[in-house]
Amino acid sequence: MEKKSLSIDRWPIILFVAFFIFLFFQYRLIYLYSDDYGYATLSYAVSTDKTGILGFFDYLLKHYMNWGGRVLYYSVLILGTAGGLWVIRIIEILIVFLDFWLIYRYLTNFRVSSELNKGYLFKAAFLTVLSYGLIQLNMATQSLYWYSAAITYTLPFLTFALLFYLLYADSLKELSIHRVVALCVLALVVGFSQEQYAITACFIYFVSYVIQFKSMSDRNKKYLLVIGLFLLLGSCILIFAPGNFKRSSALDADVPMMIVLVNRLRNILRLLFSRFMKYYILATIVALFFSSVKKVIRKRFIYLPFICFDLFIIAVYVKYGELADYISEFSRWRECLMYAALPVLLLHVFMLCKGKMWVFFSYLSGVICTLVMLISSELQIRTLLPFVLFGIPVIISLILEDEELRPVQYLCILALCIVCGVNLVGIYKGYSKNYTVNEINYQRLKMAAKDNQPKLVLYKNIDDAYSYVLPYMYDYMFAYQETNMKYYFGIDEETVFEWVDYQ
After folding, report:
1. Confidence band for 117, pLDDT divided at 50, 70 and 90
2. Which residues have CB under 8 Å from 135's CB, separation 6+?
3. How many DSSP H helices and E strands does the chain contain?
């Protein structure tokens, strides 16, 4: 019996080793794009005339004062890209791997030990690794496979998840002074990360502090308050950076604030329920639906309205491909449906996860990260990556919540296997098509510094869908990036880049 259990325990390790290998081969296909060159050469948004370590810190200071406060995590990007292509690749591989390993640890550590049967560890690991495939191409291209954005969204998730894991993994036992110091530093790092994560972390931290206040010892109350203050301090350093206000002062200057907020909320919801989020939204709805069906079977009829809502949303996605298309056939009640969808989903998760508050708080974190975009002028599909990452453990937890309806559980797992597998293979094959072109261009750019030729011929992608922005795209709208590329590779500024089709 002991040998059998040990063999089961090895499966999560085997699955995550396989996941790491997959990430290695996937990121082998990812090159530098767009702002990556600007940060690597300390020339994006602001510039410095200093060199070496002084130039590094001078650039970060100017960035903080004139462009934005995310300098702590951008320093990782700068050092990684300056170190070379494989350095930043390995950094991002490790970050994404640890993101999903932490999701798995949440699924196993915060579960009653008696529920950890011989198959649960395997299923939790398998679904965690598989759920990487819920991130669709458009989001992956703008976030995971573009290093400037990848560091901005995946590294803060790692530190955020690590902070709360270390806080609550031992059910808030007496904290030692050494652990408190380490948690204070980590809390400061989480706060000084990225606005979506910083604001969400503060909200979740202090809400959970209030909820658990009575059950804490007097010593822990003081320690946790100090940790929270460090989290708040880091968030203030980030959010109140002078550069943030300089960037936003000119935006929406002549539009009433209420109209700006309403328009932003509408745009957020349209993006959230667009075809770019279809796999994730449908996975969430299906998991909620089957969990509610289990409740109704047990005569918990309060879940019947949620079942009807789930079926309606599934039907809309089947017919239209996205809720946003359905809403675009304008009518007032359809518009109201879009505004109601997110609160209903949140209530649905809350009703199903009353006994597992960490699951609800995970989903709530994703919702808050999304709503924080109301105060930001930047709204791209990549800004919804936190919503997906925080929602993945919710989907898995709902699928694995009990073993009574095992055929239904296996049906959900099979559906996820098909959807995620097809998506992952499609993205990998797409990036593989551009690999030869990217490798030739990269080697030519490296050699151009030595050859000093007046013209350098570079190839366009075979398929631009599997790449972030390059200078020739959108009728050479981003041709200015060539300057940063020349600076990065040490190419003469007078050298002309000629982009041609690959044959």
Report:
1. low
2. 143, 144, 280, 385, 388, 423
3. 22, 2
- The answer to whether the beta carbons of residues 148 and 39 sit under 8 Å apart is yes
| Coil, helix or strand at residue 364 | helix
Give φ, ψ of 173 to 5 degrees: -70, 175
Q: Are the C-beta atoms of 68 and 248 separated by less than 8 Å?
A: no
pTM: 0.94
Residue 77, token pair as written in the block: 């990007």
- How far is 298 from 293, CA to CA, in rounded Å? 9
Average the pLDDT over 342-366 and give the result.
89
H or E, element range at 145: none
Q: Can you read off the two tokens belonging to residue 56?
A: 């590094």
What pLDDT does 4 receive?
Answer: 45
Percentage of residues of the chain with pLDDT beyond 70: 91
Integer-rounded Cα Rg, in Å, for the chain is 24
CB 63 within 8 A of CB 498: no
Helix 278-297 crosses helix 385-399 at what angle (to 10 degrees)? 30
- The amino acid present at 396, given as its one-letter code, is I
Bridge partners (DSSP) listed for residue 499: 458
| Interaxial angle between packed helices 177-191 and 195-211, expressed in degrees from 0 to 180 and rounded to the nearest 10 | 140
How far out from the chain centre does Cα 84 lie?
24
Q: Distance between CA 392 and CA 400 in Å, rounded?
A: 12
Q: How far is Cα of residue 296 from the mean position of the Cα atoms in its chain?
A: 34
Question: Helix H segments across 52-111?
Answer: 52-66, 71-83, 85-109
Which residues contact residue 94 at a Cβ distance below 8 angstroms, ignoring those fewer than 6 apart? none
Displacement of CA 295 from its chain's centroid (Å) = 31
Please give the Cα distance from 442 to 284 (Å, whole number). Answer: 40
Helix (H, G, I), strand (E, B) or coil at 360: helix
